[in-house]
What does this fold into?
Amino acid sequence: MNDIEVDILLVEDSQDDIDLALHTLRRENLANHIFVVRDGEEALDFLFCSGPYADRNAAQMPKLVLLDLKLPKIDGLDVLRQLRADPRTTTLPVVIMTSSKEEKDVANGYHLGVNSYIQKPVDFEQFRQTVKAIGLYWLLINQRPQNHFANKPAEPVKP
Amino acid sequence: MSEAVAIDRGVRAIVRFSALLVEDNLADSELVLRELRRGGFEVTCDVVQTADQFRQKLQTTTPDVVLADYNLGSWRGMEALEILRSAGLDIPLILVSGVVGDVTAVECIKLGATDYVLKDSLTRLPASVRRALEEKQVRKERRQAEADLAKKAEELARSNRDLEQFAYVASHDLQEPLRMVAAYTQLLAERYAGKLDENADKYIRYALEGALRMQTLVTDLLTFSRVGRNRKSTPLAGDAVVREALENLRAALQESGAVVHYEALPTVSGDRTQLVQLFQNLIGNAIKFRGEKAPVIEVSAERSGADKRGAEWTFSVNDNGIGIAAEHAEAIFVIFQRLHTRAEYPGNGVGLAICKKIVEQHGGRISVESKAGEGASFKFTLPASPADGEMDHTQ
Amino acid sequence: MKEAPDILLVDDNPADVGLTREVLAASGLHSNIHNVPDGEEAIAFLRRRGKYTEAARPDLVLLDLNMPRKGGRAVLAEIKTDPGLRTIPIVVFTTSDADNDITHSYELGANCYISKPGNLGDYFSAVQSIEEFWFGFTSLPHSGDQ
It folds into this structure.
């Protein structure tokens, strides 16, 4: 458990949405290891290796966090705020995936530094397409930042 | 401050040196000097009695040798040795003393005194001093040689870094203009095919071919020059590394029907990304350079190098492909060195150069045993992991 | 999804700009592409200064890193630290795939980083994917203008 590579951390409390997301990601071969947490506090514990996850290998950060907004204990925007404030997770790719259409949630999300904000489609098939698109874009097309715990690369920085 | 001049081993040449005598008995110091002169030395000498005088003298002069009485009343000759040590001075100290047990003499030498001469055997003294001075000279020469070597090594390392930097920046900066050429010649080829005269189509085709080849060359060069940057070293399970390499080769494995055998590979110490690349290149080559039969590839390892510090493993990647003629066995590891035309086999000849670089970065060696038409066996060494129990279990 | 979104394309290489424009023009989206050749122009555009007083607020910025005068990194830093501009998604779209360029861009607040493929077909696909993701699936902020 402690050393397992996690591709995606799914922060979601709706079982239906969890099932559909997992099913889609696996079927499209987009991610091998998806870890699910069901509230904001657990998400933070997982990422900061605290509480029940104190033994987790801090060098293994997920490649992507899929973050719902309406979560028990600590809500999504608060989780995001804390992630961006901590040097360990400030560049961690986070995609909000929520049913909220509120303009202020969108604005706040981008303000706090979310990488992108996605509204969950109500339609079953569209939801699937959306999860697939997210997986493709953020795991295959996008270039990810180096984990902070890796040695800094010794390549020259161009001015 | 003076230096010994012209030490001539074997022949009793006259040797000039400076001595610092630590002696509270003036008569004894006279005896010592007389004996040294009788032994053929030209010696300039200072005499001190107390520890303070000794320290003070050392601040203004650097004698070639210190001759100290063992018993100095309120202090001991061995304390003088301590003073020399803490000042970081490499000056031989010879105890010249009356009182002795054999035990004490041996102990003093163990603690760092260069020699121990009895006052009633002073005739031994000149030989002892000569030996001490000669050993000091040898030490000095060796230190100088080491410093020279270190300096050369640093220059070489710097030169290598400069070259790598150059290769990296050059290949990095070449990518954009190359893309311009490749993309737009391809657009020309696609959109103007048949619309210009027939020569134009041919010219465009050659230009495009050249551009695409340049692109792969630059990418390969970039990959090669990046090997070694950002290196980490962790314990890695050999099986997991090979599995990841095979995962990356999935398409090639399927297409060729290749079978790869590997089992119970050891845990090694190294950089995961690089070692995956290493196996990927070797196994990829085994698949690419196949003969008539479907490729059968074996990866194995056995312990070696037990006599050096830390054990190492010798890995073998054996295949049943087209093999390599013995006269080419070394050339193939040189960057951009190819043995076949592009029509026969694709590639720029960088894969093995990268393998060699990776292996050497890990302190190992790589070589190939092969005969044309009879498959190839690539062997390389990697350091064993000291933490043999812990394994990298990811994937 | 917005009709005819505005894209600010910050890139000084007309060859790359040409390719990008072509792909975006071919899609059904009819986005308005505003191209500026360096970082200073990009900032002026975003702050509606000088000749850009009537400029639209872009829905997306495609940002090359290597440009004369103000480079892409400086633009990133300036936009992402400005509360009036930081919500605009910035896609770094540049030649380099060097790890430290990538990480540094994220540290400066880039939303994502795509290295320009050398192959023509892959380049087209990349631009298509960017457009499809950001205008087909993502909710973009319509935050009040500065």
About this structure: The first strand of chain A starts at residue 8 and ends at 11. The interface with chain B takes residues 3-5, 32, 60, 150-156, 158 of chain A (CB under 8 Å). The mean pLDDT of chain A is 88.
